[in-house]
Amino acid sequence: MGSQRKVIFLGPAGQLEGMLHLPDAAPRAIAVVAHPLPTMGGTMDNKVVTTLTKAFTELGFAALRFNFRGVGESAGEFDSGNGEVEDVLAVVRHAQEEIGHLPLILSGFSFGGYVQARAAQHLHPQPHRLVLVAPAVGRSVPSFENSTSMPHVPHNTLLIHGEQDEVVLLSDVMDWARPQNLPVVVLPGAEHFFHGRLNQIKQLVLHSFHGQPL
After folding, report:
1. Quick one: how far is CA 160 from the chain centroid?
2. Which one of 37, 43, 60, 130 is CB 3.0 to 4.6 Å from 28, fit for a cystine?
3. pTM of the model
4. Do residues 174 and 183 make contact, with C-beta atoms less than 8 angstroms apart?
């Protein structure tokens, strides 16, 4: 179902590498999907990232997953989440130039969720929706202790987290979500990489957009 092709385009630190997934019909929206921490081996081929991509394509969206600077064929070096925000903005521009100014969904896993929440603040108009899986909200996450803290997000954000997440503690997520009155979908027994639970993530994303206008 649908098609996919590799894309290379210019980012703020040089070229960026991505994979563009297109539905069978004309896309209804654009979803940009960001991967987990590069210094811990995160790439656009991460299983949570590809699961999110498949869900968005099934929804009829054009989905673009990509490698942050310094990963795969993307130029540059890891920048603790700061330059990576600029990478997201470049990816969004490329997607809109290629596909059109459709409703925009920003999605990310772990470090990617943290970066997407920050990138959303720089986009005008704001993204239609954020879909964040185990976003790195705590300052204890290694490799980007000196970066900006996780911002608040829109009330319609879909946030999925594992009860037994050993990397981003559920208690940290709840402490961050509580002042925002932000719902958190908790998968009982799931850990950070959601082994054996990927289809649940996919179904949650599909259900959250079902019947929702774009």
Report:
1. 12
2. 60
3. 0.96
4. no
**Contact predicate 20/3, CB 8 Å:** no
pLDDT tens for 189-202 read 999 999 999 999 99
Domains of the chain: 3-209 (3.40.50.1820)
Beginning with the edge strand found earlier in the chain, give each strand of the sheet holding 3-11 in spatial order: 3-11, 14-22, 62-66, 30-34, 104-109, 129-133, 158-162, 185-187
At 63 the three-state DSSP class reads: strand
Q: How far apart are CA 18 and CA 173, in angstroms?
A: 29
8 Å CB contact between 63 and 21: yes
